Structure formats: C-alpha cells, structure tokens
User: Which sequence fits this backbone?
C-alpha cells in the first residue's frame, strides 16, 4: 500500500444556479492577463450543450485521455493522442489541437470611443476589438455562448453525450427543451492518472506529492502543447503570449494559507466542497486499465477509509502528516463520495481518474406533457391547464416528487456524463437524493407520511441519521464544514526539495524573478 | 681648426662624389631602358621575349605582326577590345583558352616604354642569333611529380591553415577550388579548379611568383611567396585539376529546382497521408459561416 493524500472536490449540481461567479473570481485572480484572456480555468457549461471548448467531450475530434486497446483485464492503457511514440511523431505538428475558434477569439470593446469620439451625426459606439490582434472584429463566439440554450440545434443537439441515446429518447428530451437543462461547472480535475502529465515531452507537468495538485512548471514548459491535446477535459490552455501552457492551480497559494480556492470561496449556490481523500497509489495503473463497466466502482474503491486503523498506520508510515489524516477524517468529499455514495466523477471513461466529483442533478418532474384522453381528463384537478385539444400540461402526479422514471432527463444522458454509461449508478444516486427530499418533507412540512419517508430511505439505503447529515451538509453547512483544508506543511515539502540552511542568517525574501516571457 | 676640418672631410668628400655619380649613372642606365623593369614586374608572369609561350604568347617580334597603335590599345585594355569585337583580339583570346590579359594599370608613356623595351629586346635577340634565343628559353625543368607532402602543404596554405612566410593572405580569401578537401573559398576572384590545365604549370608558377593582376599584385606587393610555397601551391593546383572530374558540379541548372519541387510534392503527399486524420479548422466553423459579418470599411 502506497497511501497518499489528494485534495478532492465535490460540485453539487442540484445547487448550481449558473451565475458564473466562480468563473469571474478565477479570471480576476489568475487569467486576467495577456495571452490568458481565453483561458477559463473555471467555466460553467449548460447541459445539454457542446461546452467549452466546443465539443470537448468528443475525443474522436480532440484525441484526449487514455484508451484501452483490448478488453482483457491485463491490457494496459495508452494516451489516445499523445505519448512517447505519437508525441514524438507529432512533436512539430500536433494534429488534434483545438484552434482559437474552438474556444473563442477574446475581445474587448473600445469604450473610450463612447466619450472621446468627435461630434457627428451618429451615436458613437464601442466597437469590439480582438484582444489578440487589436483589430476590430465580429464577435463570433464567447466562453458561454450557448449559456441556457438547452434546445438549440447548434449546441444542445450536438452534445456528444447524446450519442448513444435513441432518437426517440432524444426527442423526448427536446420536447421539453425549454425547461430541461442544468449547469456543469468545470475546473481541472487534478486527476490521479493525469494524461497531461504523461504526455509532456519536457516533463514540465507534475502532480504535487503532498496534495495531488497538478501543476505546469513554467520554467520547464517548452510549449509543445501535448498536454492540451492529452487532457480530455481540455483544461490545459496554451498561452500564446508567453509560449507556455497553463492550467488551474487549484489556488494552491490560497490552499497553503488555509483558504478555499477562489471559485469555491465565491460560490453563490454553495455547491462546492473541498477535502482530503486518502488513496492507494499502487493501484492507480490497475484501476485506470480496468474494464469500462468496472471503472467507476474501482475508482471509488481506490479511495480508502481514513478512520481505518490500518490505513492510518500505512499513511503515517508513508509520511502523511497527522493533520492531513485528521482533515481526511472530516472531509466532506469523502462523505459525499464514499460514505453516502452520492457523487460521481465526470467522464470516467477517459481513464484519468478525476478527483472532482459531481452530485448529479435531480431535476424532478413537477409536471408532464401527455396526450390527453377523456379518462385522464376526469382526474384533472384545478391546477391542470389545458393547452389544446390534444396536449395537456399535467401536474397531477400522485407524488409531490415525481418518480425517477418521469425525470426530465433520460438516465442514459446522466450516465454518459457521470458513470461511463452505467444507468444503475445514476439511478441509485438520484434515489438517495430523492429519499432525502421526501424525508425532509416529512420532517419539516409533514404532509408526507412517516411510512412513506421511511420506505423511501430504506429503498435508497439511507438511515434517518445519514439523511440528516446529507441535509446538513447540503443546505446548512458553514465554511469550515464545506472546506476542510489540510495544513500545508510547506516547510516539510520545501525541506524535501532543498536545504533551507542556505537561507539561514540571510535577510529578506530573495529576489523577484522575471515575469513570464516568450522564449526558452 | 680649419686644417682639422679638412682633415676630417678629406676622405668623405670624394666618397660622396663617387656615390652621387654612381647613382646618377645607375638612374641614367634605367632611363635608357625604362620598360625593362616594368616588363620584369608586370608582364613576365605570362610572357617571354623569345622564351616561348607561357600563359600568354611569346612577344618576340610582336611588332612585326601588330601595329604600334593596336599594341598600345591592347595593352591598355584588351578586354575593351574584345568587348568591342576587334577580330584579332577575339581570336587571340580564343587561342589562349579565353584567358584574357588583365588591363594594365600603367600610364600610356609606360606602355610605350614597355613596347619599346620589347622591340629593343627582340632586335637584340635577332642580332645575337638563334643560339641566344634558345639560351633565353629556359625549358621548364622536367616537372618532378608533386609529392603528397607538397599537395598537402599547398592545400593547407591555400586554406590558410599554414601561414605564408611573408604574411600574405591565404588564397581562399578570394579564390575557390572545387575539391572535397576545400571547405568553401572566396568568390571575389577567379575559380581555380582547372587553372593548372588552362595556364600550365609554368604559367601558374609565374603568376604566383609575380602576379600580373592588379589586385593580387597590390595584395602581395611586399609579401611575396617563397619558392617553396609556390611549388607547394602549384602541386596542389595540379592535384585539384586532376581531381576535377571527381567533383560534383556547382551549377545544377534547372535539375535542382525540379528535384526540389518533386521532393516537396512527395513530402506534402506523405504528410498529407500521415496526418490525414488531423483536425482541420474549428468545430464551430459551420456556425461561423452562417453568421452575418459587419462590413469593416476602415480598420481604425
């Protein structure tokens, strides 16, 4: 057992309101500079939709992530679009890179024209200008161009996750297109098996030993951009100004200071949680190469119980600090992923073992559209509204929360996103979410009977205590409950790298290093 | 005091007088044959008077076949005459493998002096009879086959790896020789690969000893090559000439361009196949194509 600690995240999608505050917080801190304007280390996508960059999930286009050739359990995995041989062959021409138009050409407006334009017959306008060329441009796209466009043929219907849904299922989805969509906030997953790290010809990317944050060493980066191809989530970006690649750093300077990352700190919906998870690094290769049907479960199993005495002992033997173990025991991430089994990784079929988990959105049906027939008309209550002779908008479900079968999103769609196509896993998680709601309805409003709520909890495999805990962490949790940040122990990490005695007796903080510039 | 003075100067005075007189006699002697020295420094590299052909023709009795005016013009600028189409000059150049006599940087008076010297010398030869003519011709000693050491030394000198004893510039500063052993030479002066064939060993030797070309003359004016150096360079040039047919031609004609074009086409084809699955353009291109663009009349 090679136990290591990983800072891991939970995004609770049922709570995301799509306000993009996280994106703005991140941009203001990290990417508001030349060459990084188009980089959205944190972005929020509308699903169904093509995301950012467009169709990033379609690895037939972008060749990201790992692929497993055979079906046997012994078969190893290789990078799909990079790696030693492919990377060397394509080192001067990387054929699967996204172009700027797959993102968007960053722009600003000439605001000064509004107040400095000479008097004329026309109202002065602030023309858009490219932040790359400085020339006036026609804005063709933006980072959230398809925001809320859940039914458009250009975006929603080209969502790569619709691929193996039957035409009938897709149609069912888009009949309700005006009301059915949800938001998917994305940052770097800080994967256990990061494809970007594996792809780098310069060895510039690394996964921090103490907390698993994946970083690009700007001193070593030579701008080959293999990581841009390799990352299946397209979360490494090439800075055209410095000639180096950059990515989400999980606000490690804030983490080291005990602060939550900016995106999490600023989250209006409080959908984000952060905590330590202990895992067994020996098993990474084996788990990443497991069969697709076992992938998610094996991914869950690689994470270890921080209260298990054996695990604690092995962790200590491996140099993990007591404070980190205590953080792991209090980690909200561990609770969501392992204890309660509510969260799932995004696109685990890319085999990078992402350590950002999502609680899938419930999107309960409050009403449904159905073909009206005379028998049903009899059951209509006062709230039923008749659209026309054939269709009606039916809110007369027999439950307050509709059954999952009537959910607005096909389970298959969620399964494509979060469980490598396994609908049972999604079903189980949605059932738990539903059970907690029914239980809380019983507790707070009381119009649901105790039997009904107990039945729901039992079916979902929850106890009343667990439901209360879930409710607390979902709805009432305070800062310190949502973000359990381990002490950084930078002094130990630094001492592993260099001899600090050199600095003893000398004053000051050393010299400022030059700012990032193009060149080697 | 006075007597002492005369004592002191008794001997120097006649000595000085003697010196002055002898110098006057010497300069007077030169004045009588002002062309001789010029001939010895400028012409002798390529020409003899009664000594047979060298690089250029034997000039004995040249007056009998050419007019004085023609000769003056030719010496002044044979190249202009060839350019102007003088039939005799063109024929001469053709006879001597296209080797054209360098334009003389001497005054008209000096040209007349040289021609005068040639006339006098020719006459002298005639009066002395055929015997002295044969004496004047010094048949080049049967050229001993150049030793590999000489060739090696010549190569080193040509490229400047070994310095000339008197500090002259290395040959490759201005000249080039097409040979595997030579890494690039100058293009300021003539290309010397086949100079041995064109001018012959004696010609090359004579030019190296006393360059007739103005620039070379100036460059080596007070830095003459020693005999050993000349021998080595001649040996090297002979070797370069003999190896000439082994060297790749420098002028590739249109073949180079065509082979480059065909090679590029093959490469493009290869890469086109190799990267046939590459991502081209944006995945959103279809959307962008439909978008209405504003007419940007002026780029502010």
Assistant:
């Amino acid at each position: 057992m090679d136990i290591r600690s990983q800072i891991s995240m939970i995004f609770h999608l049922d709570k995301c309101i799509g306000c993009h505050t996280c994106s703005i917080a991140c941009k203001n801190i990290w990417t508001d500079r030349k060459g990084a304007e188009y980089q959205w280390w944190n972005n929020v996508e509308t699903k169904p939709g093509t995301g950012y960059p467009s169709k990033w999930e379609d690895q037939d286009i972008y060749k990201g992530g790992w692929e497993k050739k055979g079906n046997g359990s012994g078969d190893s995995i290789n990078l799909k679009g990079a790696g030693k041989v492919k990377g060397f062959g394509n080192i001067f021409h990387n054929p699967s890179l996204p172009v700027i138009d797959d993102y968007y050409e960053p722009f600003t407006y000439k605001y000064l024209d509004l107040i400095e334009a000479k008097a004329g017959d026309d109202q002065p306008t602030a023309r858009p200008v490219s932040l790359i060329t400085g020339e006036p441009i026609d804005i063709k796209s933006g980072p959230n161009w398809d925001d809320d466009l859940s039914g458009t043929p250009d975006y929603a219907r080209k969502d790569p996750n619709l691929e193996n849904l039957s035409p009938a299922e897709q149609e069912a989805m888009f009949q309700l297109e005006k009301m059915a969509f949800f938001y998917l906030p994305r940052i770097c997953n800080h994967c256990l098996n990061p494809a970007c790290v594996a792809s780098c010809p310069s060895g510039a990317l690394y996964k921090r030993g103490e907390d698993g944050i994946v970083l690009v060493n700007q001193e070593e980066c030579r701008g080959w951009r293999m990581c841009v191809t390799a990352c299946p989530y397209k979360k490494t970006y090439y800075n055209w100004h410095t000639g180096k690649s950059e990515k989400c750093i999980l606000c490690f300077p804030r983490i080291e200071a005990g602060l939550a990352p900016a995106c999490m700190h600023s989250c209006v919906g409080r959908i984000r949680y952060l905590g330590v998870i202990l895992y067994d690094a020996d098993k990474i290769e084996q788990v990443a190469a497991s069969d697709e049907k076992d992938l998610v479960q094996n991914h869950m199993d690689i994470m270890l119980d921080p209260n298990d005495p054996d695990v604690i002992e092995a962790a200590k033997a491996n140099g993990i600090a007591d404070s980190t173990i205590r953080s792991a025991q209090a980690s909200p991430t561990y609770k969501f992923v392992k204890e309660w089994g509510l969260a799932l990784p995004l696109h685990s079929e890319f085999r990078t073992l992402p350590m950002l988990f999502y609680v899938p959105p419930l999107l309960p049906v409050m009403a449904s559209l159905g073909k009206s027939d005379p028998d049903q008309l009899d059951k209509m209550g006062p709230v039923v509204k008749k659209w026309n002779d054939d269709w009606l908008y039916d809110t007369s479900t027999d439950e307050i929360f509709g059954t999952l079968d009537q959910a607005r999103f096909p389970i298959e769609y969620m399964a494509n996103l979060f469980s490598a196509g396994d609908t049972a896993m999604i079903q189980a998680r949605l059932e738990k979410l539903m059970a907690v709601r029914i239980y809380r309805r019983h507790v707070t409003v009381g119009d649901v009977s105790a039997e009904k709520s107990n039945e729901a909890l039992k079916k979902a495999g929850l106890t009343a205590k667990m439901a209360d805990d879930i409710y607390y962490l979902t709805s009432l949790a305070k800062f310190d409950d949502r973000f359990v940040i381990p002490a950084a122990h930078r002094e130990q990490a630094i001492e592993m790298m260099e001899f600090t005695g050199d600095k003893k007796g000398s004053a000051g903080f050393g010299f400022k290093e030059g700012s990032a510039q193009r060149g080697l | 005091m006075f007597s002492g003075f005369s004592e002191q100067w008794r001997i120097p005075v006649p000595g000085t007088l003697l010196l002055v007189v002898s110098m006057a006699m010497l300069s007077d002697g030169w004045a009588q044959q002002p062309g001789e020295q010029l001939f010895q420094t400028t012409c002798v590299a390529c020409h003899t008077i009664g000594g047979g052909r060298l690089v250029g023709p034997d000039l004995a009795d040249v007056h009998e076949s050419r007019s004085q005016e023609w000769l003056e013009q030719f010496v002044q600028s044979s190249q202009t005459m060839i350019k102007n189409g003088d039939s005799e000059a063109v024929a001469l150049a053709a006879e001597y493998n296209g080797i054209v006599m360098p334009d003389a940087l001497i005054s008209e008076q000096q040209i007349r002096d040289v021609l005068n010297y040639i006339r006098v010398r020719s006459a002298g030869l005639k009066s002395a009879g055929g015997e002295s003519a044969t004496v004047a011709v010094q048949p080049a000693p049967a050229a001993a086959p150049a030793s590999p050491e000489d060739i090696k030394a010549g190569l080193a000198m040509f490229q400047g790896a070994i310095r000339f004893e008197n500090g002259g510039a290395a040959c490759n500063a201005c000249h080039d020789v097409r040979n595997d052993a030579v890494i690039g030479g100058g293009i300021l002066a003539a290309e010397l690969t086949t100079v041995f064939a064109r001018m012959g060993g004696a010609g090359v030797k004579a030019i190296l000893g006393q360059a007739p070309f103005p620039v070379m003359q100036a460059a080596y004016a007070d830095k003459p090559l020693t005999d050993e150096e000349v021998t080595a360079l001649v040996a090297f040039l002979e070797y370069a000439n003999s190896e000439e047919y082994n060297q790749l031609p420098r002028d590739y004609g249109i073949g180079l361009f065509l082979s480059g074009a065909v090679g590029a086409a093959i490469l493009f084809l290869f890469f086109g196949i190799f990267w046939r699955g590459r991502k081209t353009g944006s995945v959103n291109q279809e959307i962008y194509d439909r978008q209405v663009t504003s007419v940007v009349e002026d780029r502010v």
Observations:
- Residues 253-274 of chain B form the longest helix (22 residues).
- Residues 263 and 269 of chain B are 10 Å apart (CA to CA).
